[in-house]
């Protein structure tokens, strides 16, 4: 055999002789050349059954996957199979196919799960894919039969526990699992989730970290789709060969818009994500975009469209997952909005029973106590509503401002009208911080109606005007119908005088707006970081400039209702979603 030059990288003259290419590949491997260069020579040689060559091809395929070159990885693995059947290689090929076309790979995955020669590591990965598609029993049987150990088994156990808390119990008491949970970044609590996403490059191995971190941030109310790292992730996903990561990130954007009260955007993004993958491709994760779309439609008052989609074909295992909670809540909210309060209450209580059976709660995804309290109110059971609202507030402590605001709003509704404003103002503060415009509109509306019912109608126009504008801006048909039922088909009008208001300084305008909403001097001082005496001085000048004698007259000036603006959320930085 002719001698090969000492540097295989500089050997363009090897011709078509497979032996020369094979010799060059061996020499490159011995020299520590990049594995891709070794694989190029092995491809030119037509492959080899020698163990070192097979290992080099598989290593090069793994590197190609990391770099997002799945087609190249597939060619290399198919070359390995020329040497003979190998269940491990077949599993790697099936996993690449799943990444590229998840819906079309389910039958191949289930067939592969029955292979007696499947290596333990491949079995662990395959079990996660089966879990994605709701094939829970198959995943459990595979893990029992193949009995994988080590890192892949620990990751698989933890991931399946996050997805199916009752089916795959937490094995955190085992030292090996504890060690993995402590060191593997995407299995740590919420505090690490954003750090994981910031450093993530989208490829097949990144999908589970992406899914887990997004779920944790969503439940913790810390998901923000407008950060630079999110844009980088989305760009990386769009450049990959798979649609799965892009679909997940688009669904996450829909969740962000829904939490901000941007109903059209939430609906459109959720629908886009549902079109990126088929229902089969989504697996049990379909509950997230579907539930988001249905909730956005319900809030817009488009109830017929929701009803048409409630009973579509869904994975039977969906109800065992946190994503099932999202769908269950959306269905319950639809029932509540359409006068089926008992059906709604049943769904909300079922969500609570599911979480209690898991021993894990997801209040950001499924605030079942607040939802059930609202259903009890609709049924006239004030005491049950009060009990659940108090329980929710006690459980949350200082976490999850949206859920706390919702609980405060429900709790206020159980009180006499004159006692409601204090709790509603506390809820409004939370919502202004986190940027939920729709729930803010509800609280402002409740505040205005509380003033009317308490015999202080002079304070009602300002919060009602702002609430109406927010609801109109969000196309919140459900809330706008409630306004209409109370005789309000537009913002409350009053003798607003733009010229007079223009005379106010910016600081005076802020004080006047709060005073018009019924805030007391001490409350205004606390909100604006002023002293009480400064507030009094501002009010004196405000009265003079506006030509009024008392603060109650401010409420009749509709122009003092704060302008509708996009409220930017302040990051809550809270806590572990498993709290």
TrEMBL record:
Key words of the record: DNA-binding, Transcription, Transcription regulation
Signal peptide limits: none
Lineage, broadest ranks: Bacteria, Bacillati, Actinomycetota, Actinomycetes, Micromonosporales
Record keyword Transcription regulation present: yes
Any one GO BP annotation for this protein: regulation of DNA-templated transcription
CDD domains xref list: LuxR_C_like
Organism, scientific name: Mangrovihabitans endophyticus
Recorded superkingdom: Bacteria
Entry protein name: HTH luxR-type domain-containing protein
Keyword RNA-binding on entry: no
